Amino acid sequence: MWRRQVTDAVLDRLLSKDEPEDDEPRRLDLRLLVAAGVAWGLVLAGLRMPALWVAVMAVGCLCVTGICVWGERRSLATGFDHFTATPRPLKWTWRTRTYRRDAIYPRLVAVGALGGAVSALCLCATAGHLAVRSAGPIGELSQTSAIVRVEAVVTSDPRAVAAGVGGAQRLVITTVSVRQVVARGAVSTTTTPVLVLGDERWLEVHWHQRISFTGRLKPAEAGDDVAAILTARGAPTVLAGAGPLLGAIEGLRADTRQATSSLPADPRGLVPALVIGDTSAMPQELNDDMRATGMSHLNAVSGSNVTLVLMSVIWLSGWLRIRGRWRLIFAGAALVLFVLLCRPQPSVIRAAAMGAVGLLGVSVARRAAGPPALAAAVVVLLIYDPWLAASYGFALSTLATAGLLFFARPWADWFARFLPSRLRRLADAVAIPVAAQAFCAPVIVLLQGSVSLIGLPANVLAAPLVAPATLAGVITVVVAGFSTSVAAVPAWLAGLPAWGIAWVAHAAARVPMGSLPWVPGTVGALLLAALVLLLLLSGPWLARAALRRPWLAGGLALVIAAVWTPMPSLGWPPPGWVYVACDVGQGDGGALATSSGHAVVVDAGPEPGPMAACLDRLGIQVVDALVLTHFHADHVGGIDGVFAGRTVRAVYVTPVEPGGQQSGGDEPSDEPLVHQVSAAHRLTPQPLKTGDTLTFTGLQATVVWPSRVLHAGSEQNNASIVLDVHSRGLRIVLTGDIEKEAAAAALRELRKAPDGTHVDVLKVPHHGSANQDPDFEHELQATIGVISVGADNDYGHPTAKTLDLLRDSGTAVVRTDRGGDIAVVSRDGHALIARP
């Protein structure tokens, strides 16, 4: 019965016309939402096309609208009859699965016409944006890597994305809108967004300042929200400030930080982040843990953040006895102030729009207005900034808001039935994160490659603390504008629940097996979406069955958990492990321990699954650095597995770009994959070269190769990064796929080391291929030689010649194809081997 009712409601509202609200107040109008979804997809496709082709697509959509209207014969006499007239009821027969054609056809025509019109509107706006962006000289100059002098306005806060290498300064990124460019003796004016890469001096730049600087242009990827990438040379010169209004806003942000300065580190950073999106004081560990547990929407300007702020403002207006339409005006003014405080960037405006719509989702009286409002917000935002169509943040905000609109209120009512009367207000706090997480899960899988098992419980535990922290935080911001010392009182009131939120994030991030490995990529996202849809449709039946037979339901849940949860090997990882070579098949992937739950990962194997499973077994939650020795698929193809359910702080790659000579059957480069995955996680790969050092807790790695391009042998293999690692009394040399030419060059660098050339552990080059330099193995005299290789591989690795060479050098050989993962353990300065 329930399935018949659900299907009736979905089909009827998807294809129906407007009906009186009091006839079916619980029905939701989805027509405009369907049209907005179609427009979104077309805009996403259009971002990679020239403006002219996008305009042609817009004309095509208008033609679709015209055909839909013209094709319905009754519309010839009554105009847009099927958009306005009340049709005969749509009848659905479950047993025969038949529809009344005369009822469905006009509704499909109406949806098609509306979708065409909305899509044409969005595509026209996209074509205009693309035309304006391509009008300036930036695109042409970037194709030739020209050095330019620009004047620009800063459009985002600068942020450091990776630690420096070998004592070098950190890489800092920001976006600017170029207003004037000087290149090749010509001066041009433009309004073009550009991504800037700079050093630490760029951290002193503030939002909306007008600056001048010099740099080298490079083209951006097709479809990016910037027209080019500009690598700055030196520090920028500030030409003008942000103006009096924006200066006052910056002063209020500073006052808020001052008011919270007496709080402990975690709440001191979290309260401003929660209320006004100011993450400048967020501890890095808290930021990483919140990202790993799916709580990062609380420390950034998101739709849920805006919803909570608006709910706090509405509560405050009731306390101030503001009534009627004045309460709406009060909330609108607060929303404008919030956007100004958080900076009116596209992501902030998107969050404000979605937050306002999300407020409808938790409202009983206005719930029916939610889907059309969400659709209108999507359309307006796509017109304002078409590049939001390619933004994961935009997709997550939209899906989370849809979850609130469709399920937050019904689920809250259902949860409330099982709570004592005094605790029923907690039902909303539970239903909201559950609904948002359910809808966002397929997109999160695209980003992480795994399904978080701890994210939902963590958000549910933190949910009751968010509202009081936000409310007290809003009061802190208001009072801080008058007195920062007085504002310290509500700041402490906000700090207590904020400390609880931080505690939940830290505790959840340390739960073992907090994520479930999943099929990566689009296939995994579609599979999870189908599973979520199945659970939503069968949820009422499952709930009733569980209540009727709780013991059976509990037993079934235990069986599912036993089958799906990966069981760690007993005693794995072994205490004191320093390096683990992961069994990733025919490829390389390994981890160097830094601290509890942290590691430096060197190479990622050919597939995401084995690499993710290996790091899960080791309990790695934070990757301090991901070093990809070179761009062959057997070393970088599993990069998604490194990011799956983990925080990656930096990505390092070989400085030798693929290309040139490809002798020896050299394989294609997967460099685009590395940049694509890194960009999706807001990281920029940094090159490593001879002499650079990486320093982390208990570990120092020196780069001994590459320093130049070798054209002999495989150019890419010989471009592999070679690391000389010192950790916990052991010396380990990791060699990638270097061949004899690069091995000879690396050996010359290793001879310069003060502790000589002897090493404890050697990761044998190129899976033990025959292309070795005998002097390299003989002179290093490694105690242990680790070979990462696939069983029964087609290359014959490792070769008998290489095994004999290692044996003659006094090196004990261990292989991943015989026993799986290999752990190197430090005992009193000696290297020991442990296996699962």
TrEMBL record:
InterPro entries xrefs: ComA-like_MBL, ComEC_N, Competence_ComEC/Rec2, Competence_DNA_uptake, Metallo-B-lactamas, RibonucZ/Hydroxyglut_hydro
GO BP annotations, alphabetical order: establishment of competence for transformation
Membrane association type: Multi-pass membrane protein
Keyword Zinc attached: no
Annotated keywords: Cell membrane, Membrane, Transmembrane, Transmembrane helix
Limits of the Metallo-beta-lactamase domain: 586-767
Source organism, top-level taxon: Bacteria
Localization (cell): Cell membrane
Bilayer-spanning residue ranges: 28-45, 51-70, 300-320, 326-343, 390-408, 429-449, 461-482, 489-509, 521-543, 550-567
Main location: membrane
Any single Gene Ontology cellular-component annotation: plasma membrane
The UniProt record lists the keyword Cell membrane: yes
CDD domains: ComA-like_MBL-fold
Protein name per its UniProtKB record: Competence protein ComEC
Organism listed in the record: Rudaeicoccus suwonensis
